[in-house]
Amino acid sequence: MKRQPKKVRGIFERPKGSDIWWVSYKDMAGVRHREKAGTRGMALALLEKRRMERRQGKKLPENLRQRPVLFREIAADCLEYSQGHKITAGHDVARMPLFVAKLGDQPVAGITPQAVERALNQISVDRNWKPATWNRHKAMLSLCFRLAVQNGKAAVNPVRMVRRKREDNAKLRWLTAEEETRLRVVIEANYPDQWPAFALSLHTGMRRGEQYQRINWNCVDFEQRRLWVPGSKNGTARSIPLNDAAIAALLALRDRSDGTGPVMRAGIGGHGLLAGEPQKTPKQWFQAACRKAGLADYTWHANRHTFASRLIMAGVPLRTVQELMGHKTIAMTCRYAHLAPAHQLEAVLKLDGWGKAEAGGQSGTRSGTGDFEASKPEAVDAVQDVIQ
Question: What is the C-alpha separation between 331 and 327, in angstroms, rounded?
Fold first, then answer.
């Protein structure tokens, strides 16, 4: 049986079993007060503090009787802010209820870094989160408390004391030529109206939200072979050049509308949508197609990895790939650098001729493997002289 904590006069749990503790004490004038403290440990600390203040003759805080600000209130403020300032507000709307269920009725002043981390870990275990998902939810919680501090509803942001989890971004999944052929066969046989959407993603590297929710026909310039993405994930608009495959995909999609409004519209057999109706996501069909092609680990987002990987392997400079991908920093693009071994080999081979004179190939500096081997004994003797 679970051991019951020792009863302490002046603290009580309400309601029973909620792990929400209160303190009860009298001030200097003999007036009884009750305060909501949070956890049992916090209640013990608050009770000791109030008793010490009474012994020292201190007055109680003027705002003691004010109603405490609950987490659910700052959560609502955060969602209001997200919907007015963030392109990804929909993610916050989906994530926030998880934490309102855990922390909603707790006073903001009593939420500690430990309580935040405990809530994150409990939900993470229940939902089998990866480190990146854990970090995205932590960032949302931090925004909640940061706004609360700015609005005078909290004194500190406890989430700042919670460490991020290390994310492993080294593993990149992209589509090989053979895998693309298999997937194309499945799509053309089972979802033929969806091939233009897939081809457009593969040849532009757009994010799913950009393709399905951001672009309309005003963003497409067939004459200049350009597609403008307004307000991308990092907050800036960007331009994507269009190759022949992307142009063909856009022309097929244009046949489904009058050339106005959203680019992504359902074709015939739109999987629950009427022909010409706007599409918001490829989820209705893409994962099923991947499973049928034997690519269960491939996702729509991996189309971006395929786009970037193929550019790198074709010898396109990293800086150009960064611009095409819409990465805010070059560090994001450097994840693909290892895919250009021939380019890297070409770079280090240039060192073979380093130090040779331009005229006649003679120089006081030895270079080349043969020269290095010949000079090795002298170099070793020189090092030994220094050591001695």
Answer: 9
- Single-letter code of the amino acid located at 44: L
Q: Model pTM? A: 0.61
Q: What is the pLDDT of residues 50-101, one digit of tens each?
A: 888 887 776 655 555 567 889 999 999 999 999 888 877 888 999 999 999 9
**Do residues 135 and 164 make contact, with C-beta atoms less than 8 angstroms apart?**
yes
Q: Report the C-alpha gap between 330 and 179 in whole angstroms.
A: 29
Q: Are 115 and 20 in contact (CB under 8 A)?
A: no
Single-letter residue type at 162: V
**273 and 140 co-located in one domain:** no
Q: Is 105 a domain residue? A: yes
Collapsing DSSP to helix, strand or coil, 96 comes out as helix
For the purposes of burial, counting CB atoms within 10 Å of the CB of 313, is it exposed (0-12), middle (13-18) or buried (19 or more)?
middle
Domain that holds residue 358: 354-388
Instruction: Say if residue 5 is preceded by a cis peptide, omega within 30 of 0.
Output: no
**Enclosing H/E stretch for 241:** strand 238-241
- 338 with 359, same domain: the answer is no
**Backbone angles phi and psi of 314, in degrees to 5:** -85, 0
Report the C-alpha gap between 88 and 51 in whole angstroms.
48
Burial of residue 165 (number of CB atoms within 10 Å: 0-12, 13-18, 19+): middle
* 189 and 229 share one domain: yes
**Which of helix, strand or coil describes residue 362?**
coil
